[in-house]
Description:
By secondary structure, chain A is of the alpha/beta class. Helix content of chain A is 39%, strand content 16%.
Amino acid sequence: xxxxxxxxxxxxxxxxxxxxxxxxxxxxxxxxxxxxxxxxxxxxxxxxxxxxxxxxxxxxxxxxxxxxxxxxxxxxxxxxxxxxxxxxxxxxxxxxxxxxxxxxxxxxxxxxxxxxxxxxxxxxxxxxxxxxxxxxxxxxxxxxxxxxxxxxxxxxxxxxxxxxxxxxxxxxxxxxxxxxxxxxxxxxxxxxxxxxxxxxxxxxxxxxxxxxxxxxxxxxxxxxxxxxxxxxxxxxxxxxxxxxxxxxxxxxxxxxxxxxxxxxxxxxxxxxxxxx
Amino acid sequence: xxxxxxxxxxxxxxxxxxxxxxxxxxxxxxxxxxxxxxxxxxxxxxxxxxxxxxxxxxxxxxxxxxxxxxxxxxxxxxxxxxxxxxxxxxxxxxxxxxxxxxxxxxxxxxxxxxxxxxxxxxxxxxxxxxxxxxxxxxxxxxxxxxxxxxxxxxxxxxxxxxxxxxxxxxxxxxxxxxxxxxxx
Amino acid sequence: xxxxxxxxxxxxxxxxxxxxxxxxxxxxxxxxxxxxxxxxxxxxxxxxxxxxxxxxxxxxxxxxxxxxxxxxxxxxxxxxxxxxxxxxxxxxxxxxxxxxxxxxxxxxxxxxxxxxxxxxxxxxxxxxxxxxxxxxxxxxxxxxxxxxxxxxxxxxxxxxxxxxxxxxxxxxxxxxxxxxxxxxxxxxxxxxxxxxxxxxxxxxxxxxxxxxxxxxxxxxxxxxxxxxxxxxxxxxxxxxxxxxxxxxxxxxxxxxxxxxxxxxxxxxxxxxxxxxxxxxxxxxxxxxxxxxxxxxxxxxxxxxxxxxxxxxxxxxxxxxxxxxxxxxxxxxxxxxxxxxxxxxxxxxxxxxxxxxxxxxxxxxxxxxxxxxxxxxxxxxxxxxx
Lengths: 276, 184, 385
């Protein structure tokens, strides 16, 4: 499908142009989500996009589906309600690093633990952009932010490890630079029956870049290119060679009972006396 | 009967709240109004426990028991705390196994080895609450025996029905003996 | 068992009756978090909902419960949560979201002693103002205050109906006494209970505007998956549902949200009056305290004191007519409540000096007694003479 056809079909064209700054990676990620959705056989009328609060959480407003722009941090709680109420709906959560890992961190852990069939795409731009550039739990330690004028001393999360440890059954990471890989990883996540989590390292030139010696968005994309190491390549590298770099690709996949399905086969069946 | 207020007290784990519920259900089976309420500490076992039941042929507004017409005390602590808040001409039923120092009381006071009866005559101390119900109903006729037995059997697990039936009968028997002794 | 079927009366607690009301009203989704003294509502629905294909989920916290309830309602299910004091505080932001996005939902708050952890198993009525103003910004609220087990059933049904009709969160303000006390109750057969289901749009998705109100100021509501592809956001939005960032649209929206409930005030707001016609002193009391007040009225009258009772059944909208009427006839009003004076503010506003208003407040974790009320009535009588 041509770009124009994709836009016409999956975007609310009258809501464009979007609010994101020039050079922001959010458009690339939203585009990847749309391309990935197009690769699935999801019914557009049976697909719900849910978000929290922040720059990235504005994405659903531009997307031609049932969409839900919730309160800060709570996208996964709302999405759990939608999915559990109507397991026949496909539910996708678009969220930012602050939304998902700080104020919404507990919901992330528990949605992963339940292995409920949601696909979560985290737009990780290492900063709170909407409020003007404060550090988040994913801001690399020692970076500068408006609330870290002397450099952040907070250690940053590895969110993928967190989700895997909490029970997420599909975990992947990519970057705005690796847009083609990103589409495939999201598409796999969408088709995965269970909790699928895709972290996307992206750029905020306006608030992260300017404070942290990235003169232009291109410099930030270059940084992504140079620091992202595919899982296979990383296997051949020593810890010293991996220092300061991060893994991209599929990090974890397993089959495990999905929450809404188990509710049917276990709880409802027992309550009705169909099984003991 | 216009209105009867009962207070069942002891320690957590003695089944007093269940006993209160059963008593209220029996009253309903008798066609009366009933309100049951409770207070308990946060711990499920061992703390102080109190169930209150009001039985009336009329509407029950205020749901709490003030000066009780009957007070059951199945621990010394409960007896010390609640016996005094009983109508001067009311009824006090004490588990003599636990209440070693009965209070001065102007009404009728019955000391019954309730838990001991449950353990030795019925075979399980966990049915002491049902023995207590038998004693209370036996000495006061607050509910009919038929309704009480139905209410007990409706509430307890199926495999314990016989045990509880036996416990209730033991309570009634003990009440009968008490009343007989009183009559002598 | 024979006796049980012969007699339809049963012994239920307020919390248990709330469960029964929810099931009859068509609640098919419950998300909650354990908290005393409301937990029996969650426990009851955990057992019952799966039997009828409904959904029960215990969430990771109070905030998540409220979020899940809103999500489920948008997906088309009648949805509810139950909580108490601290949990009610935590839910407030999402309650505001439901008001702003017009998502029907019911929040049961079994009031307990506060602030903070307070006395978890003890009663209070300290959340009357929080129910009205707990979330930020102007917003409509409906809050109901049952005084008996049967009324808890009835008002739970009504709460669900009102939420569906008005597309707004409805709060059931139980108190610990009514929630935990068991009493004899006869519940109506499910088929005799009137239900309201949210109005769905009849327009095609091409021309449908999700926030264009019908004549009653409430927009029809599709469910996710119905093919309308609508957007719900807590941002100020226009009739399309999309954020517009304009104060003028906020003005239109928030005034409509307020008006859709306000214009039904006469239908929703109500109070029960008892012996007020010739009453010299009228007690205003709600929930469990109203039971004490009723007993006090009977007892006082037996002693020759002309006491009456107004029992607000709705906290919000407040039953203004009932207060207005006794403010004209009584020598004084006494507002008895288990807080330091919340409902009294509404009573004073409506009485507007026509009758003096006195408080009777207990915050020692005990239910106000009929004696407390009679003593206060005697004090007030001496005062107004």
